[in-house]
Amino acid sequence: MLASAAINLRSSSASRAFSKALPNSTAAPFSLVRTLSPSVSRFSVRSMADSAAAPFKKIQIHRGDTAFDAYVVGKEDAPGIVVLQEWWGVDFEIKNHAMKISQLAHGFKALIPDLYRGKVGLDVAEAQHLMDGLDWQGAVKDIQASANWLKADGSKKV
């Protein structure tokens, strides 16, 4: 049986580390380390997210009487995939993941719906506040609308 887990931890400190042994495993613990320079400010983090926007096309998706921003990258006629943000929002890292996904194999069209409506958590407290305030039913509808947009925009498979 293959055990898998997706865990993302961040703290306000410059160094982020996570160590954990897989349950029922004789393998040694693994470690994920993520560091940001202490000189990275809130402004520069926001700037990094904005700088990742270059290959992305910012679009607006409408569902009912609501509209939300989304970011799309990849070949026009490629199979589509909806890439969901972490609890931080649509940041530099999520955009990088979407870009890498769009370049896999023969290519994909990756779309990131902005579930936080432009807000990005820059520390644990802010990210938690954004997550706590998320309209979950609305987020599910946004994700479905994103899949529908990909289909309407030429992705035969989503």
Structure description:
- By secondary structure, this protein is an alpha+beta fold.
- It has a domain of 100 residues: 3-Layer(aba) Sandwich (Rossmann fold), CATH 3.40.50.
- 30% of the residues lie in helices and 23% in strands.
- It is built from four helices and six strands; from the N terminus they run ββαβββαβαα.
- A four-stranded mixed sheet has the order 3-4-6-5, with helices on both faces. Strands 1-2 form a two-stranded antiparallel sheet.
- The longest helix has 17 residues.
- It is globular, with a radius of gyration of 17 Å.
- The two termini are 28 Å apart.
- The N terminus is likely disordered.
Annotated CATH architecture of one domain: 3-Layer(aba) Sandwich
Average per-residue pLDDT, rounded, comes to 76
Uncertain stretches of 5 or more adjacent residues: 1-49
Total helical segments: 4
Question: What would you call the shape?
Answer: globular
What's the main sheet like?
Answer: 4 strands, mixed
State the end-to-end CA separation. Answer: 28 Å
List SSEs in N-to-C order.
Answer: EEHEEEHEHH
List keywords for this structure.
30% helix; Dienelactone_hydrolase-like; two-stranded antiparallel sheet; hydrolase activity; 4 helices; alpha+beta; AB_hydrolase_fold; four-stranded mixed sheet; Dienelactone hydrolase domain-containing protein; 158 residues; single chain; Rossmann fold
Please give the structural blueprint.
Blueprint: E1 15-20, E2 30-35, H1 42-51, E3 57-63, E4 66-74, E5 80-82, H2 92-102, E6 109-113, H3 124-132, H4 136-152
Parallel strand pairs: 5-6
Antiparallel strand pairs: 1-2, 3-4, 4-6
Protein name: Dienelactone hydrolase domain-containing protein
GO molecular function: hydrolase activity
Domain Dienelactone hydrolase: 68-155
